[in-house]
Design brief:
The protein is an alpha+beta fold and about 230 residues long. It has 2 domains: about 140 residues, Sandwich (Jelly Rolls); about 80 residues, Winged helix-like DNA-binding domain superfamily/Winged helix DNA-binding domain (Arc Repressor Mutant, subunit A, Orthogonal Bundle), CATH 1.10.10. It is built from 8 helices and 10 strands. Strands 1, 2, 3, 4, 5 and 6 form a 6-stranded antiparallel β-sheet that branches. A hairpin with a 5-residue loop joins strand 3 and strand 4. Helix 5 crosses helix 6. The protein starts with about 25 loop residues before the first helix and ends with a helix.
Length: about 230
């Protein structure tokens, strides 16, 4: 994996610009941001960062998805979060000044941009208003964490599984695909046993909400899945 200017995209033409940190910057800061940014293309399963490593800079997912996994003492993996296009990645360790507490792995082909640590700190000093943009992006993360805790405590099993599928699915042409996530991981994200997760997935497939395509899951009725994810019944 090599970060370079060659793979860079035009942030102003990006389809997910509205949900990206970049959108909160003023025009001068946006120009500087693009001059500092380098980009890399990751293949499915390729590692962006490893648990225990020190952050080289700040990452943003430009397209595709990235799952952040933690390893237990028994060697099992637990997905702690999934970052989609427009999301910051590895930023918690970066701002905490410590090592990564999990590993970042690409889910399908994924494009990631990076600004190295020192240039990013200098960028914040030069453009103080960027601090507000950063706080807004971090606040979205905190809210997402609060929502997840609430959902696991109060939502029914089907709703939690639907939400996990919505989080995991990435656009692929005219449909959404869950790629690079095992059934066990979907169960963990939903706070369910594997047996319960498998039963619910089979029910969703029977109702033609999803369809298994090899190791992937295609979301064929996203509206129905979205309604299920919001249901408290």
């Amino acid at each position: 994996m090599l970060f370079s200017k060659r793979n860079s995209i035009d942030c102003d033409k990006c389809q997910v610009k509205a949900s990206c940190f970049y959108a909160y910057l003023d025009p001068a800061a946006q120009r500087e941001w693009k001059s500092l940014m380098t980009t890399a293309r990751l293949e499915d399963g390729e590692i962006l960062f490893n648990e225990g490593d020190r952050p080289p800079g700040l990452f943003i997912v430009c397209s595709g998805s990235l799952k952040v996994c933690k390893n237990s003492l028994s060697g099992q993996q637990l997905i702690s979060r999934i970052e989609h296009a427009g999301d910051l990645a590895g930023h918690i360790a970066f701002f905490a000044g410590g090592a990564y507490q999990g590993s970042g792995e690409a889910m399908g082909q994924t494009l990631v941009s990076m600004i190295s640590d020192e240039p990013f700190i200098n960028f914040l000093k030069k453009y103080p208003n960027a601090d507000i943009a950063l706080i807004r992006a971090l606040a979205r993360d905190v809210r997402a964490g609060d929502n997840k805790a609430h959902d696991i405590a109060y939502k029914p099993a089907k709703s939690r599984m639907a939400d996990a599928l919505m989080q995991s699915a990435a656009p692929c042409g005219k449909k959404y695909i869950v790629r690079g996530v095992k059934r066990r991981e979907l169960a963990e994200m939903s706070g369910l046993t594997v047996e319960t997760a498998v039963r619910i997935l089979a029910e969703f497939e029977k109702k033609k909400i999803i369809r298994r395509e090899g190791k992937e899951i295609a979301v064929i009725n996203r509206d129905a899945l979205s309604k299920l994810s919001l249901s408290d019944e």
